[in-house]
Structure formats: structure tokens, C-alpha cells
Amino acid sequence: TFWSKGGSQTIGNEGGNSAEHIISFPAKDGYFHWSGAVMMLFIESNATGCQVKWTMVDKNHNDTWFTWEGGDAIPGVLDNQWHHFVLRYDAATSNANLFIDGVKNAITRNWAGHGDLNLDAGFIREARVGKGPKDSGSNDWQSGSLQRGLDQLRLYGAALNDAEIQKLFSDKK
């Protein structure tokens, strides 16, 4: 979960529209996944709103993207007001849900029977808050930095239920 506040355009390192990373877990050398990451979460803006993109790579190098983009982009959250975002992955159903300000988005994403994430913590080099997994290429979307407000970033070891997520929002936590 995290709170974010920013304007209508996500801004890359050189000022143009690009990805703004909330958090990433860059992989150690030798991981052999094209992204260079074990997990990353970022937002981008488009004409319809905020695109949310979350990718994970398991220990077998299987990956998935949970995205809310294109026609599924979230309108009204890039308005210079604080908004609460929650991304939840439920291993029992292999479903990912996005909540904005305590409300579950109608679009559910699924990792086709994957179950537990099985991320390989041994390949994680570090956790980066507000920075993408890549170091090179100042305007590469994978090296993008967060250009907006971020508060109360939290990771949980289990999927929160809907009521717990709504309480986080209503209690402003």
C-alpha cells in the first residue's frame, strides 16, 4: 500500500512523459531476466488517466504483468491530491486487485493458477523506493525516478482482505 500525490503527467528523468517507479527490487547480476528486476511497481499517465503496472518474476524466471492501462487506466487520481493505492495478490486465487481510496477496481488480473509468488529473495540486490531497477540510461523507463509525493509505503506478507484495505484508507494509514 502507498499514498501518492502528483500532477497529471508522470515525468521521466529528463522531463518527458515516462514511468515513475514506486518501488523496485533490482536483481543481482546473473539473474537473466530482461527487466533486471525481481519485482517493480510503477505508474504512467496517458490521455485517460493513471496507468498502474506491477510485474513480478518468480524463482523459475516466469513473469507476469498486472496492469491497469489503456482503457483500464484510472481517471481522476493524478490531480495533485493524496490518493491511497493498494495492490493485492492473493495466492489462493492467483488474482491481483487494485484499490484506490478504499474502493476495489472492477478489473481483476490473474496469473493463471500460479499460486504462491515464489520470488527468489536470493536474487534481490536491494529494495529501491522511488527508483526503477536499472542504473543506466538516464531516460530509460526502467531507470525512472518518482517525481511525486509518496507516503506510508508498506509491504505485507499476506493478502489483506477488503475490510482491512478500506480501514487503511479511512484511518488514513
Please provide a written account of the structure:
With 173 residues, the protein is mainly beta. The chain contains one helix and eleven strands. The radius of gyration is 15 Å and the shape is globular.
CATH class: Mainly Beta
> Architecture in CATH?
Sandwich
Helix content: under 10%
The tally of helices reads 1
Poorly predicted runs of 5 or more residues? none
Distance between the termini: 9 Å
Biggest β-sheet strands, sense, barrel: 6 strands, antiparallel
Beta strands, count = 11
| Overall average residue pLDDT | 88
Structural class: mainly beta
If you compute it from the alpha carbons, what radius of gyration comes out, rounded to the nearest whole angstrom?
15 Å
Which helices and strands, and how do they pair?
Layout: E1 2-5, E2 20-26, E3 37-46, E4 49-57, E5 63-68, E6 83-90, E7 95-100, E8 103-104, E9 109-110, E10 128-129, E11 149-151, H1 162-170
Provide a concise account of the structure shown:
This protein is mainly beta. The chain has one domain: Jelly Rolls (Sandwich). The chain is built from 1 helix and 11 strands.
